[in-house]
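Researcher: We plan to redesign the surface later, but first we want a full-length starting point. Tokens attached.
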């Protein structure tokens, strides 16, 4: 046996935690052996386990152990408390919706959760008119007419959703999307309000939504469904440009992440490294502020070194700390580094505030044809 192949005990854990640690270490290509620790008077099934790894993997094993990456299950993407076991994909049956489905199914397969396809439709507004309106129709006639129209609209939406489901089934059969179980749901209401209420009640793990191409966004600045969702929902939202070519999860290697210089930064990277499997991912870290940050360069460099020590399989570098307007600096970083995914922390704000002071996520959504992962803070 080679010297570096000799086994050494990394830690002793209960069986449940040892198995969890084994899974994470093996993801990092570390061979793991579990051995019972016999304790007098304790049943065999309750024996703790030695987690043993090769001596040559000890340095990486300790970094993974000390990073806290083993403390939560693999689905912990920042805040998992109360989140459901499904992923939501709102659709409007456009070609962009199918692109969102492809990305959403890849993510759902990675997370081990079920994707749910949601479509909403708007029925006629039932307003009680006068007994007889200007055209001589009675209140009863108007109500009956609206009811018939509402039924027709729901039938049409249901038919469209069934056709879209068949399109997804064909894509699964042809290998364009992962062949995993999914379901559909049809709800009445304004799309952004329906999605917001759905997330409040059902807590999906993530929402995956299509966005307009950059050449069409200027006509959709006020009232973009996706923009409203990312600014109001308190679950992660992954946006997919309509002209995006899905790379698969493993195909995304160059990531820009906006930093807040809070524990949120480390928690974000930890969740991404655990879930998205980025063994060689390049992170460009950008401080979030329109105003000068005290010692920004030094603090960002310290954060890069800390994350590099914690996650040696990835690379981290400071970006966006040069002089100039914030938007211009960000645009330069995104262009020069050929960024494939942008990660943005997003604070909840009122509709009034969003109209006059759009959030960072909102601004980037309308400025870049790059997938956006918006994380609520």
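Model: Full-length starting sequence:
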């Amino acid at each position: 046996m080679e010297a570096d192949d000799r086994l050494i005990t990394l830690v002793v854990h209960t069986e449940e935690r040892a198995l969890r640690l084994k899974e994470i270490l093996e993801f990092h290509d570390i061979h793991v052996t579990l051995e019972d620790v016999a304790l007098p008077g304790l049943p065999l099934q309750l024996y703790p386990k030695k987690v043993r790894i090769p001596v040559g993997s000890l340095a990486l094993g300790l970094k993974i152990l000390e990073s806290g990456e083993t403390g939560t299950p693999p689905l912990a993407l920042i805040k998992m408390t109360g989140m459901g076991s499904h992923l939501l994909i709102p659709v409007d049956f456009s070609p962009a919706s199918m692109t969102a489905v492809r990305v959403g199914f890849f993510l759902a397969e990675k997370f081990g959760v079920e994707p749910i396809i949601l479509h909403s439709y708007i029925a006629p507004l039932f307003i009680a008119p006068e007994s007889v309106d200007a055209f001589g129709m009675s209140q009863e006639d108007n109500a009956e007419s609206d009811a018939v129209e509402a039924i027709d609209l729901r039938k049409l939406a249901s038919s469209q959703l069934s056709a879209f489901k068949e399109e997804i089934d064909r894509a699964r059969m042809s290998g364009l999307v992962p062949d995993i179980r999914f379901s559909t749901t049809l709800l009445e209401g304004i799309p952004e309000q329906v999605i917001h209420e759905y997330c409040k009640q059902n807590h999906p793990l993530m929402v995956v939504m299509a966005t307009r191409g950059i050449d069409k966004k200027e006509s959709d600045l006020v009232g973009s469904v996706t923009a409203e969702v990312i600014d109001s929902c308190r679950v992660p939202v992954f946006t997919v440009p309509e002209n995006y070519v899905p790379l698969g999860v493993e195909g995304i290697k160059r990531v820009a992440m906006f930093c807040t210089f809070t524990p949120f930064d480390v928690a974000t990277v930890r969740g991404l490294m655990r879930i998205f499997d980025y063994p060689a991912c390049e992170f460009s870290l950008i401080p979030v502020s329109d105003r000068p940050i005290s010692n920004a360069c030094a603090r960002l460099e310290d954060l890069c070194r800390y994350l590099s020590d914690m996650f040696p399989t990835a690379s981290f570098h400071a970006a966006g700390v040069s002089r100039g307007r914030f938007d211009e600096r960000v645009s330069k970083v995104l262009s020069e580094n050929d960024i494939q995914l942008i990660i943005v922390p997003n604070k909840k704000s009122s509709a009034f505030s969003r109209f006059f002071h759009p959030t960072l996520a909102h601004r980037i959504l309308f400025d870049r044809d790059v997938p956006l992962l918006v994380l609520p803070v």
